From TrEMBL:
Annotated keywords: Hydrolase
Name of this protein: Exodeoxyribonuclease X
GO molecular function: 3'-5' exonuclease activity; nucleic acid binding
Top-rank taxon, per record: Bacteria
GO cellular component: cytosol
GO biological process per UniProt: DNA replication proofreading
Protein EC: 3.1.11.-
Any Pfam family: RNase_T
Domain Exonuclease: 7-180
InterPro entries, sorted: Ribonucl_H (IPR013520), RNaseH-like_sf (IPR012337), RNaseH_sf (IPR036397)
Amino acid sequence: MRPTPQIIRVVDLETTGSAPPAHHVVEIGWQDVALQANGRWELEGVGGSILVNPGRPIPPITQAIHHIRDEDVADAPWWHDVARRVLDPYPRRVALAAHRADFEQQFCTANLTHGADWICTWKCALRLWPDSPSFSNQVLRYWRKPEGIDHERGLPAHRAFPDAYVTAFHLRDMLNEASVAQLVEWSKVYGLLPRVRYGPDRGKSWQEIDHESLMGFLTDRDPDVRFTAQHEFDRRRGGGTVGKPSVQELLL
C-alpha cells in the first residue's frame, strides 16, 4: 500500500477587495503538490474550490475580475466554516503556497493555518527564472509551458481553482530545482527583482546601472525595489549576488 505522501497545498483566493477586514473571501481554490517515492514532486489529487459568503456585497470592480456575483454566494458557507479544513489538511501538509502569497496571508491568518510556513511562487520565480519576461502566474504559464498542464483545466483565469492549478505546476518545478527550506526562506523576504522596473534604467539588470542610480533606489517607496537595491549595493561591496543562485545555494 502506498504511504500517504507529504504535500504542499497551493491555494488561491478570490475576494471582495485587497484589504481585510474591510474585504472578505468569496472563493478559495486549492491544488496539492506531493513528494513522491522517487524523490520528485508532482501534482496530487484533483484539487477543488469552494464559494464563500463574504457577508457583504461584492463591488462591481471586483466582480469584473472574477465574475462571482452576490447571488452566486448568497447560500454559500462562511469563511470560518471552510477555512481551517482547506488550509490545514493535517498531518500531511508541509507548507502552504500561493502566487503573491502576501495577499493570501492577509486572509489565511496563522490561527486558520495552524502556523504554516508559506511559499510565494512569485518571489521564488524571481530567483529561479529571472529571464522570464514577466512574473505573473499566467505569463509564467505561457513562457514556461510546464510539462503536463491541461490548458482548459487552468481556465478561466482569476478563478480560484484554475489559478491554484496553474500555480501548482510552477511550484512543482520549483521544488524539483530547490529545497522546501530554500523556497520558504526566499518567501519570507521581499522580492529580489532581476531587472529595474522603471525610470531611465528600466529593463536593465541591477548590475548594469551606475552607482548614482542605485543609490536613488535605496529609498524607493516600493519595498521590493529597496530590498533589491540594497542587495546589489551589498554585492558591490562583496556581500552577495543578484540573479539566479548557484547550485550550492539551491541545495541549502
